[in-house]
Design a protein that fits this description.
135 residues, alpha+beta, 3 helices, six-stranded antiparallel sheet, Thiol Ester Dehydrase, Chain A
Length: 135
């Protein structure tokens, strides 16, 4: 999926350098993948911050799609948290993003990160503030 077509811009250098690829994108439901290789910490497992980058990227982009579709402005993250419950060792992490709240000023998304076998590795939650367009 080409984010430039959807948003008029790409996903940013950090997400690109981490190999995040989009497969589905809507304000309510999105799917993206990220390779474990190249995103590991000292002990060879996926760095916990990688889950946060995947989750924050997914939630922020979904919130911006919502904000732009509804003429509300631009969404910016104001809170993110993550609970890691497993380790990514190889292959790909699959992020599934679902909206919990889509309002005029706030959005909240939950991103469940699993391995290719479907085992939950991390749960990320992000709240975005929608800033009205200037003018």
């Amino acid at each position: 999926m080409d984010l430039t077509t959807v948003l008029g811009k790409d996903q940013g250098l950090l997400a690109l350098s981490m190999g995040i690829e989009w497969h589905e994108l809507s304000p309510e439901y999105s799917v993206a993948t990220m390779p474990v290789e190249g995103n590991t910490q000292t002990f060879g497992i996926l760095h916990g911050g990688s889950f946060v980058v995947l989750g924050e990227s997914m939630g922020s982009i979904a919130a911006n799609v919502y904000a732009h579709q509804n003429g509300l402005g631009t969404a910016v993250g104001i809170e993110v948290n993550a609970s890691h419950t497993g380790s990514g060792i190889s292959g790909f992490v699959i992020g599934t993003c679902r909206s919990l709240h889509l309002g005029r000023t706030l959005t909240t998304h939950e991103i469940v990160c699993t391995n290719e076998e479907g085992k939950r590795l991390s749960t990320v939650r992000i709240t975005n503030l929608i800033k009205k367009a200037a003018g």
